[in-house]
């Protein structure tokens, strides 16, 4: 009971602070269902009237790291929360209050069990600070050559704060799921579990180093995308050391403009890079906000912070590619069929009806520029359609959906007129031709033959095991099931224990009855 009160107090406080500081003041509620309009209306009543939006980022930072993650996502969607709010929220991406250099030094020396000057030739003050960690610029000497590296140090006490935040989120998810039929369809508890797993992995920098290494291997041939090299000998649970990236953060639009870079082209590169990683590799950066992306002097897009990554299986990648291409080509019938084939829509509904519903989503997007589309209204319409067709939340796609919203928001910050569909078309079409066209079918056939061959090799052993099982079943049927002596002895002990329990229990009840009537 006390724990529940604590969860309720913290959640109520967080909601009040977010509403009071005006986080939701710029949200366009026109066309939203009342379930969404009502809380936003209340938030508008609570919001300050002095227009002091500069308090938003510090207020969210005080709430905890999980709320900072929410703020980072909202910072990429000025079309949802408003331009002024989004600009203030950008401070949560890489400009949070750092902890002292001496504390970072202590964490490093404890992790490697040696003095700092034996590890790094130079070690700077913090150059960037985020919700989970902060970054220092350092110099190492490798084979007599000096190299600059980025050293990421975990914030002390951050794991405890994440556990508290997750406890609040689980409480809220269970509460909503218990009392709301609509919420059960959205699976809030499973969604929080998915986020919890990603956060736990984000707390161990050895796993982040592995993710960066795999990501680097996957993108090695991409001329327009760069992943820094991992220095494995300088990585620990709380420490991550990567190649230093010289570049301009995509959050600094003025600095980008001064370089003369083609911002619309950079926006397209971000969208296409993400789609390549998701559809081609099945492994993508799931935290691609402006603070984690840089433009290098060579004109390449560089990514940092690989604590949150997403994965897609082969089936999910195929469904994603076909759905995207169906929207691009306006083939809504095929989009509907893919949803049914993937099991995203219950079979009790008709494909034609669902195709009609998603046409209502696709056509307005195709006929208007990106800066004319209200993402809030679009998300509201999608929510209504998922409810209409009883679509369940797919927890395996939560990270993908969240990242797509963020990536499109970053692209639109560079080019308000960004055409998402024409940008995605060459990547998706190329993947479909390679994997679902004639070459793809040949590849599938080859994999199928390989599986049949492997099964043929194992066939004698499988048949032999099957024959032994059949003989055992026949023996059990005719002679009964024979148990091992140890099993019989264990069952006897358990049965004797139960008998003693009932004997003692019966005796106790008898004594109580006698005492009751004796009185």
Automatic annotation (TrEMBL):
One of its GO terms (molecular function) is ATP binding. It holds the Pfam family ABC1. Residues 92-339 form the ABC1 atypical kinase-like domain. InterPro entries: ABC1_dom, Kinase-like_dom_sf, UbiB, UbiB_bact, UbiB_kinase. Pathway: Cofactor biosynthesis; ubiquinone biosynthesis [regulation]. One of its GO terms (biological process) is ubiquinone biosynthetic process. Keywords: ATP-binding, Cell inner membrane, Cell membrane, Kinase, Membrane, Nucleotide-binding, Transferase, Transmembrane, Transmembrane helix, Ubiquinone biosynthesis. Belongs to the protein kinase superfamily. ADCK protein kinase family. This is 2-polyprenylphenol 6-hydroxylase. It comes from Rhodoblastus sphagnicola.
């Amino acid at each position: 009971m006390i724990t529940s009160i604590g969860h309720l107090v913290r959640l109520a406080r967080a909601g009040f602070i977010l509403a009071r500081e005006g986080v939701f003041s710029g949200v366009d509620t026109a066309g939203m269902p009342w379930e969404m309009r009502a809380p936003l209306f209340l938030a508008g009543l609570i919001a300050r009237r002095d227009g002091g939006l500069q308090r938003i980022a510090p207020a969210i930072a005080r709430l905890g790291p999980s709320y900072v993650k929410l703020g980072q996502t909202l910072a990429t969607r000025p079309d949802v929360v408003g331009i002024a709010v989004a600009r203030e929220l950008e401070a949560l991406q890489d400009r949070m209050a750092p902890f002292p250099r001496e504390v970072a030094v202590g964490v490093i020396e404890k992790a490697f069990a040696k003095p700092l000057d034996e590890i790094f030739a130079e070690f700077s003050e913090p150059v960037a600070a985020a919700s989970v960690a902060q970054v220092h610029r350092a110099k190492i000497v490798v084979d007599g050559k000096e190299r600059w590296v980025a050293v990421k140090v975990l914030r002390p006490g951050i794991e405890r704060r994440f556990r508290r935040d997750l406890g609040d989120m689980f409480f809220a998810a269970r509460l909503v799921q218990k009392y709301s039929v609509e919420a059960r369809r959205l699976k809030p508890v499973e969604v929080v579990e998915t986020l919890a797993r990603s956060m736990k992995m984000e707390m161990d920098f050895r796993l982040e180093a592995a993710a960066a290494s795999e990501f680097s291997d996957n993108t090695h041939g991409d001329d327009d995308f760069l992943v820094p090299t991992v220095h494995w000998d300088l990585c620990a649970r709380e420490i991550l050391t990567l190649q230093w990236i010289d570049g301009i953060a995509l959050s600094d639009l003025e600095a980008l403009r001064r370089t003369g870079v083609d911002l619309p082209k950079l926006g397209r590169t971000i969208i296409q890079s993400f789609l390549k990683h998701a559809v081609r590799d099945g492994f993508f950066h799931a935290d691609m906000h402006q603070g984690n992306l840089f433009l290098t002097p060579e004109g390449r897009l560089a990514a940092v912070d690989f604590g949150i990554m997403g994965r897609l299986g082969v089936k999910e990648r195929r469904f994603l590619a076909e759905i995207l291409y169906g929207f691009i080509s306006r083939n809504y019938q095929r989009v509907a069929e893919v949803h049914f084939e993937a099991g995203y829509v219950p079979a009790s509904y008709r494909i034609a009806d669902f195709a009609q519903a998603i046409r209502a989503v696709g056509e307005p997007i195709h006929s208007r520029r990106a800066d004319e589309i209200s993402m809030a209204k679009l998300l509201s319409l999608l929510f209504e359609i998922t409810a209409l067709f009883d679509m369940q939340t797919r927890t395996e796609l939560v990270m993908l959906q969240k990242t797509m919203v963020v990536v499109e928001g970053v692209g639109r910050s560079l080019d308000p007129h960004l055409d998402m569909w024409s940008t995605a078309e060459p990547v998706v079409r190329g993947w479909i031709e390679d994997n679902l066209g004639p070459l793809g079918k040949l590849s599938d056939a080859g994999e199928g033959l390989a599986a049949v061959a492997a099964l043929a090799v194992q066939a004698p052993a499988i048949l032999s095991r099957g024959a032994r099982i059949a003989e055992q079943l026949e023996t059990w049927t005719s002679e009964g099931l024979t148990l091992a002596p140890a099993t019989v002895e264990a069952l006897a002990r358990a049965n004797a224990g139960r008998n003693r329990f009932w004997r003692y229990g019966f005796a106790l009840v008898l004594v109580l009855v006698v005492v009751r009537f004796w009185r």
